[in-house]
Amino acid sequence: MFLTISTTGTPERPATDLGFLLHKHPDKAQTYPTSHGTAHVLYPEASVERCTAALLLEVDPVALVRRGKGKGRGGAPDAALAQYVNDRPYAASSLLAVALSTVFKSALRGVCKALPERAAEPLPLRIDVPALPARGGAELVRGLFGPLGWTTVDVRPVALDETFPAWGDSRYVQLVLEGELRLADALRQLYVLLPVLDDAKHYWVAPDEVEKLLRAGDGWLADHPERQLITSRYLSRRWGLTREANERLELVRLAEADDIGVDAIDNAVEDPGPESDAPAAPAETERPVSLAEQRREAILTALREAGAGTVLDLGCGQGQLVQALLKDARFTKVMGVDVSVRALTVAARRLKVERMSERQAGRVALTQSSLTYTDKRLKGYDAAVLSEVIEHLDLPRLPALEYAVFGTARPGTVVVTTPNVEYNVRWETLPAGHVRHRDHRFEWTRAEFHAWADEVALRHGYAVRYVPVGPDDPEVGPPTQMAVFTATKSGRSTSTRTSDTSTSTTTSVWDTSTTTSVKDATGTTTAKEEKAA
């Protein structure tokens, strides 16, 4: 089996620079041993105007069978019929992909000390793969390579036998790719997509294959329309590995959409702050109830009063509230939602999901999603909880969260809790002027929180009441402030403030507005509101 890589050039930028980028001299034919045969690199042509490098892989079918213990190990689909006579020595597959990564290791990483600027810029490339097994046909090949920047994706099916055209086409195609891409990007695409199209691998797929896939897919896989198929086939349909890869790729996609780092999104698992669950005290000492526990109890009380049976925990973190909800049989369905893969992993361990009975497992789901994007999976629930979530968003992102939750998902009840910044002076361990958690983008006073909640209720047709959580200090108020929104059938919004000393109610007519959905560059629906006069 073989493939060729060609480029063109000028006297100022000769095509023979390809030799520098591949770290293989055009005047030499070089040989490299592989675990299943021998790889050869040679240059059929090498001039200033045009240069072509060929990678030829000679596969030892006996070594393939021995290393695969006679079973093909998923790498030879025809091995059960003929262990020593099959397509593996001739068709581009995972064998060629491994040889590609071995022989062109530095080029795959985009490293070239001699010509770093050439390695970083697009080149006019042509790649020929004469015999490519394509389970899914020519359309799948175009669907995989088409979105990756190639101007030409020429796919020609190979006939079973040209003498007998009535027999039709084989599952093999001739592939020609043309376009201007970085050489490293082109090689990484081939490394992933050759075994994907073959839908087989000649070696056991271990957990480290996820890291290999993410490295090779950096910059193109997260936004690929066939991401699910690519990850599933590349990882030999091992669903656990496929799920892990897709969760991590979704983080990359969301980070790119918001123009922030992945670590800034996947940050829900942190060291405890002043509000966290306190460690258990010795048995002889009565442990004070932590603010986190008081907050959960206040949320549960609000949900019970609302008569909610199905609940969304939006920004569920490590699953403490989900766990509390599952202990109450009146909550028949609970979905924990978080953008952080690490948090969801911790939540699954906390809940012992894998050891749940079938009935209990049917009550709970843990889902990765960003709360600033609409998600149809969040519709149809009686209630939603945003517990200590909104303060982790930048203020300009709050309208997107508001529309996704109140405008689109629109549960009957929404419970929102957030720190009361006025109370921070009562935290002895919190330096003056500091927020309670290093990831908090803001912390509101009671007046600021009420103003925001009143506006949300007004825009989306909810009544809202306020409940203090924790000791209600007469000077600075409670440590946590909670708003309970209830959807109104009349389209009117009401606001009620509940405290130990006074209760006030304000009522206003819900203004008329139209909401339209628009798609951003990632194809994800976001909200755009146009208020009517």
Can you describe this structure?
The chain has 533 residues and is of the alpha/beta class. The strands form 3 sheets. It has a 9-stranded mixed sheet, sandwiched between helices. The chain has a 7-stranded antiparallel sheet with strand order 2-3-4-1-5-7-6. A two-stranded antiparallel sheet has the order 17-18. 31% of the residues lie in helices and 26% in strands. It contains 17 helices and 18 strands. A hairpin with a 3-residue loop joins strand 3 and strand 4. 38% of the residues are buried. The model is unreliable at 69-81, 276-285 and 499-533 (pLDDT under 50).
Structural class: alpha/beta
Helix content class: 25-40%
- Count of extended strands: 18
- End-to-end C-alpha gap: 68 Å
Largest sheet: 9 strands, mixed
Q: How many helices does DSSP assign? A: 17
For the CA atoms, what is the radius of gyration? 30 Å
Shape: elongated
Poorly predicted regions are 69-81, 276-285, 499-533
List keywords for this structure.
18 strands, 31% helix, 533 residues, seven-stranded antiparallel sheet, disordered C terminus, alpha/beta, single chain, elongated, nine-stranded mixed sheet
Give a short summary of the structure.
The chain is of the alpha/beta class and 533 residues long. Helix content is 31%, strand content 26%.
Write the layout of secondary structure elements.
Blueprint: E1 2-8, H1 17-22, E2 30-34, E3 37-46, E4 50-59, H2 61-67, H3 94-103, H4 105-109, H5 116-119, E5 123-133, H6 137-145, E6 152-159, E7 169-181, H7 183-198, H8 208-216, H9 227-234, H10 239-258, H11 262-265, H12 291-306, E8 310-314, H13 320-326, E9 333-338, H14 341-351, H15 358-361, E10 364-368, E11 383-387, H16 398-409, E12 413-419, H17 446-460, E13 462-469, E14 480-487, E15 492-498, E16 503-509, E17 513-519, E18 525-531
Parallel strand pairs: 8-9, 8-11, 9-10, 11-12, 13-15
Antiparallel strand pairs: 1-4, 1-5, 2-3, 3-4, 5-7, 6-7, 12-14, 13-14, 15-16, 17-18
